[in-house]
Amino acid sequence: VFNTKKEIFGYELLYRAGQDSVAYDADDRDSATKDVLVTAFSEIGIEEITGGKKAFVNFTSELVLHEIPLMLSNNILIVELLEDVRPTPEVLAACRKLKRRGYLIALDDFVYNEEYEPLIYLADIVKIDFLKQTLEEIRRDVKRINSGHRKVLLAEKIETYDDFEFA
Known about the structure:
- It is a single chain.
- With 167 residues, this protein is an alpha/beta fold.
- The chain has helices spanning 29-44, 46-50, 61-65, 89-100, 117-122, 135-146, 161-166, and strands spanning 10-13, 54-59, 77-81, 104-107, 125-129, 152-156.
- Strands 1-2-3-4-5-6 form a six-stranded parallel beta sheet.
């Protein structure tokens, strides 16, 4: 993950079943995240992987509700809520607890929906997938997200220099 100056801000840690895997290939999202966490934080070592930079890790509702992120350092971990995490009262309470404990929260593959306003309010970072929407849809969503919230917006899946400049 780069900042606007093309400097490394952090890394997104993604599950892959094997060395030849090129895309998400797990059967169970909870198990996939647990595997990433064990590998990155215990087996290899998160400092070795990120060099002290931030680590974005995908979390499901279940993992957030079971307080799994609290087992890890808030200095490096960014709790990335998957796009299917719903803003239920329980999830919102768990996210507020994470925020009180100093964790950053990111919303993954975000497409604006009014239902998600409570999560937008709690989030520090909103990730917008450039392959899922047109530039006009992105422009519209950014206005909605920033209306009263002013979040860090993270453009993902940038494939061209024009998209980079737009972002």
